[in-house]
Amino acid sequence: MPVNRNALIRYKTIDACLRNRRRKWTLDMLIDKVSEALYEYEGIDKGISRRTVQADIQMMRSDKLGYNAPIVIAEKKYYTYEDPEYSITNIPLSPQDLERMNEAVEVLKQFKGFSHFSSLNEVVQKLEDHVYTAAHHTRSVIEFEKNEQLKGLEYLDLIYNAVIERKAVEMEYRSFKAREANTFFFHVWWLKEFKNRWFAVGIRKEDGDIVNLALDRIVSVKIADKVKYLPNNRVAAADFYKDVIGVTVSRNQRPSTVLLEVTNQHAPYIETKPLHHSQQVLKRWKNSILVQIKVQLNFELEKEIMGFGDGIRVVAPKRLRKIIYKKYQTSLERYDKGWEEHERE
Predict the structure, then answer these.
(1) pLDDT per residue over 160-184, tens digit each?
(2) What is the pLDDT confidence band of residue 1, given thresholds at 50, 70 and 90?
(3) What is d(CA 333, CA 69) in angstroms, rounded to the nearest whole number?
(4) How far is CA 179 from CA 8, 291, 344, in A?
């Protein structure tokens, strides 16, 4: 039985509400949430009828779509799932589904040895884990880092397709420093992920600077069919980021030789998970090691260093050493001030 896009949005919205057991959901509250979702994703502003949502609940309860959702009414007015672990996204796979997925995993595994397909490794592991879990009716044995609270992920699919189809987008964007959002045309060349945060990378105009726009700062985005797309004829993404940690790239800055003294307590973490592909261990002392990386000095590098606290000391360059020293000094002053205010109370 085919299900249209609007119906799927309604089902997923109802499912998300009923999984949130911190609230009690009346039918009117579900109607409001569904109406909001349809407006957000499809631009439908006429709302949704009571009869439609009631029919959706009945459809979810039935086996027509394979949901068999255990939706019950508590206290004669509040809708909830009888099973707190239930979700329509956890529908068990049929034996035929498992067989097809197994075949897909075996095909994808053939590419794991080729560097060109190295990005498939995590996808293959996720598929293998999902197939094993479904087939053996057990809990997942691999847990990937994720943050379902991240903003902006709803734009990922549209922007990805804009890159693939070589189309410009019209974007309403508000940076952290801006008081108001700004609307402009943007030509996305690739998508970049760093520490679970996604960025659209491209240019605003021909011969313009390459910029990173965080998806969580996008207010709205749509395909700009009437605007001619400006393709990437300049640089490959891998080359663009080869001298940096993170996403902030300076066009006019050469990479600096950064020397870091790392305590033995933190050395294993740095050695097993290098800060950058250029990393080398130059010296080993009794209580620490000297690490060298060649990167541009940027905000992400500073955060990475400070994330190790007293486990890392910047040896060189002098400019970076001063920046980190000043940040720690400011932090200490804030701690001291906080204690003084506390004592006066």
Answers:
(1) 889 988 999 999 998 888 888 889 9
(2) very low
(3) 56
(4) 36, 41, 36
SS3 at position 105? helix
Joined together, the tokens standing for residue 202 give 């491209």
Alpha carbon distances (Å) from 187 to 160, 211, 237: 12, 10, 15
Max CA pair span of the chain: 74
Q: Per this entry, what is the length of the chain?
A: 345
Helix (H, G, I), strand (E, B) or coil at 261: strand
Q: What does the alpha-carbon distance between residue 164 and residue 303 come to, in Å, rounded to a whole number?
A: 33
Burial string for 91-117 (b: 16+ CB within 10 Å, else e) reads eeeeeeebeebeeebeebeeeeeeeee
DSSP 80: E
DSSP 6-63: HHHHHHHHHHHHHH-TTS-B-HHHHHHHHHHHHHHHH---S---HHHHHHHHHHHHSS
3-state secondary structure of 253: coil
DSSP-assigned states of every residue in 158-204: HHHHHHHTT--EEEEE--SS-SS-EEEEEEEEEEEEETTEEEEEEES
Above pLDDT 90, what percent of the chain? Answer: 49
Query: How many C-beta atoms surround the C-beta of residue 175 within 10 A?
Result: 11
User: How many other CB atoms sit within 10 Å of the CB of residue 171?
Assistant: 24
Classify the C-alpha dihedral 135-139-145-148 as positive or negative: positive
pLDDT bracket for residue 39 (50, 70, 90): confident
Give residue 195's pLDDT: 84
User: pLDDT tens digit string along 64-86?
Assistant: 877 888 999 998 899 999 988 88
| Residue indicated by tokens 């001030």 | 337
Mean pLDDT of 89-96: 66
The Cα 213–Cα 202 span in angstroms is: 8
